[in-house]
Design brief:
3-stranded antiparallel sheet, 50% helix, mainly alpha, 3 strands
Amino acid sequence: MPFSPDHIAELNLLALFPTTSIQEGIKVHAHSAPLETVSAAERLYQKGLITQKDGGYLTNLGCETVEHTQKLLSILAAETAP
């Protein structure tokens, strides 16, 4: 199953969360953020990954998901051997 545009928006939003502290979160401003980002935040909230529908903090499941997201991004960003 390929990633949908909604999945990509959710992954991009998860990648914005700070990974150094669970005491740091993000705020998605509905009046200035792109619609796909606002919608992604709402979906992540519904899935139990973040604490507020406009961002907030990561839940335990959200922290785990961000770790996987960072690993995936790192793997995909790695240069391939010649």
